[in-house]
Design brief:
Blueprint: E1 2-13, H1 20-39, E2 42-51, H2 55-63, H3 68-85, E3 92-95, H4 99-115, E4 118-128, E5 133-135, E6 153-162, H5 168-177, E7 182-183, H6 185-194, E8 202-203, E9 205-207, E10 223-225, H7 227-232, H8 234-237, H9 245-251, E11 256-260, H10 264-277, E12 285-289, E13 292-294, E14 297-298, H11 309-316, H12 318-328, E15 335-336, H13 339-369, H14 383-389, H15 391-401, H16 405-426, H17 428-431, H18 438-458, H19 464-473
Parallel strand pairs: 1-2, 1-11, 2-3, 7-12, 11-12, 13-15
Antiparallel strand pairs: 4-5, 4-6, 6-8, 9-10, 13-14
Helix pairs in contact: 2-3, 11-12, 12-16, 13-16, 13-18, 14-18, 15-16, 16-18, 18-19
The structure holds 5'-O-[(L-methionyl)-sulphamoyl]adenosine.
Length: about 525
């Protein structure tokens, strides 16, 4: 078996109020991870977790009257239960307060100090507290933080620096030689153009006097490590870098770092340079997705415009939310969140196209065959079987080649729509009236049911609970859930099936619920 597929989300700030922007990064990763498990060609290691150090978190802990560690310990279960409610199948949940992570960060710092890539110097610059980012004077936009346009504070102090500049030429060259290192292309271009200007070394500590909630800088107790330097290391500490070489070599390099476009610089500049400095291979791909926006502004806690995924799941169920996130935007583009559109998509794609189809086919099976899957003569190379059999390749190309879950779900819905047409074209209600058409009716019935079986199986990466429901109704829930399910002809004749509850009861919309 080849190297496991290793995919990561960023680490979520533990004090973030999770919204659908966060859910998006994680649902994307989940779909990729589940798809790879489905293909069964390699093991999967899907890691997510929480970023738990830094000034903002210490402030939030103080506000809540708790010790820092107790504060973060109290929040992590909420993240885990959010991911559970969204059907996220992560394999490992890493926390930056984990002992192993802290030790590995310190090991790396010691190595870099020894190598001369970290030095102590004077820091003069501007700090944006909400973004936890330092900026030079030239980076400020109208004297405000270039990321969030808020006020910044001037800071002059001694700190440790990491020699980013030393590796600038290496990184530029790496981008030249690895065209797909950052996708989409527009984001890669942004990084390359950023690298045209001289890089400044990165200030990677904070004096303890100013901030104590962080990993202690090794051998100098006056300092703690800057959160970004600490957090990025999770991608290798989570797979036992420097602790267990065998396991590390099995999993590293990561196949995909999924991130939002706001954290591109940290992932596509700092992180590769950190890896180069410690002699570790680059991740294979960094995928930068766009933002979910409301009225043109990025959804975020500080803008008070967030949409809570837990509430949405309570109202619509988990799969409609996953479907909306995966299918609504092309990975890389921004998406304007709209609850009206979510409802519209639910009613058209889920309730009408898929839910109704399932309902109609089961109702016909009951009416014409008392629920028993009929004996049939459908040839594997007939139009519908061939179309169904080619589905997995299309889904695979969309995900693996194009990193495009919209096209992947689109490939499935193309089949769902074709099946609906097939029902209309075949007019089974007329076939049923004519004794001579009995074989044609049986073929029609089998074609629909077997197609639904294949669709139900391949929905697993995207809509796992719908996949479970469909497979249960088709009585194939115990069959292997992998690529072998995509071979035509596995639904047995003679099995008796019962129509169940509608998969997606239609939503009656009275008035606009949109916040946009
Ligand atoms: N803690 C850092 C990441 C460290 S990784 C070593 C961080 N955390 S975050 O909680 O602010 O963001 C986590 C992820 O959510 C990021 O990928 C970010 O881009 C994504 N999103 C946050 N708001 C978003 C939207 N409004 N829309 C889409 N994704 C956005 O950054």
């Amino acid at each position: 078996m080849s190297k496991p597929f290793y995919i990561t989300t960023p680490l979520y700030y533990v004090n973030a109020k999770p919204h659908i922007g966060h859910a998006y990064t994680t649902v994307l990763c989940d779909a990729f991870a589940r798809f790879e498990r489905f293909m069964g060609e390699r093991d999967v290691f899907f890691m997510t977790g929480t970023d738990e150090h830094g000034e903002k978190i210490a402030e939030a802990a103080a506000e809540s009257g708790q010790e820092n560690q107790a504060f973060v310990d109290g929040i992590v279960p909420h993240f885990k239960s959010l991911w559970q409610s969204l059907g996220i199948s992560y394999d490992y949940f890493i926390r930056t307060t984990d002992m192993q992570h802290k030790e590995i960060v310190q090991t790396i710092l010691r190595d870099l100090v020894k190598k001369g890539d970290i030095y102590k110097g004077e820091y003069k610059g501007w700090y944006c507290t909400p973004c936890e980012s330092f900026w030079t004077q030239s980076q400020l936009v109208e004297n405000k933080c270039p990321d969030c346009q808020r006020d910044v504070t001037e800071i002059i102090e001694h700190n440790y620096f990491f020699k980013l500049a030393k590796y600038q030429d290496f990184l530029l060259q790496y981008f030249k030689e690895h065209a797909g290192f950052v996708i989409p292309k527009s984001k890669s271009n942004e990084v390359v153009s950023f690298l045209q200007n001289p890089l400044e070394d990165l200030c990677i500590t904070r004096p303890k006097a100013r901030l104590s909630w962080g990993i202690p800088f090794p051998d100098d107790e006056e300092y703690v490590v800057y959160v970004w330097f600490d957090a990025l290391i999770n991608y290798i500490s989570g797979v036992h870098y420097s602790k267990d070489e065998k396991k590390f070599k099995q999993l590293w390099p990561a196949d995909v770092h999924m991130i939002g476009k706001d954290i591109l610089r940290q992932h596509a500049v700092y992180w590769p340079i950190m890896l180069k400095a410690i002699g570790v291979d680059m991740p294979k791909v960094i995928v930068a997705h766009g933002w979910w926006t409301i009225q043109g502004a990025k959804m975020s806690k500080s803008r008070k415009n967030i949409v809570d995924p837990v509430e949405l799941v309570k109202i619509y169920g988990v799969d409609p939310i996953r479907y909306y996130l995966l299918n609504e935007v092309i990975l890389g583009n921004d998406g304007a969140y709209s609850e009206d559109l979510l409802i519209q998509k639910y009613n058209t794609d889920l309730a009408n196209d898929l839910g109704n189809l399932m309902h109609r086919v089961f109702a016909m099976l009951k009416k014409y065959y008392q629920g028993e899957v009929p004996k049939h003569y459908v040839k594997k190379d007939a139009e519908l079987p061939a179309l169904m059999t080619s589905m997995i390749q299309e889904v695979s190309d969309a995900l693996r080649q194009k990193m495009n879950p919209q096209d992947a779900t689109g490939a499935i819905w193309k089949r769902v729509r074709r099946l609906n047409q097939f029902v209309e074209e075949t007019k089974p209600w007329t076939l049923a009236k004519d004794e001579k058409q009995k074989p044609a009716l049986a073929n029609f019935m089998y074609t629909c049911l077997e197609s639904l079986r294949m669709i139900g199986c391949l929905l697993y990466p995207f809509l796992p609970s719908t996949s479970d429901k469909m497979r249960a109704l088709l009585k194939v829930a115990d069959q292997p859930m992998n690529a072998s399910s995509q071979i035509w002809g596995q639904l047995s004749e003679g099995v008796v099936l019962e129509p169940g509850e509608p998969l997606f009861p239609r939503l009656e919309v009275e008035e606009s619920t949109d916040q946009a």
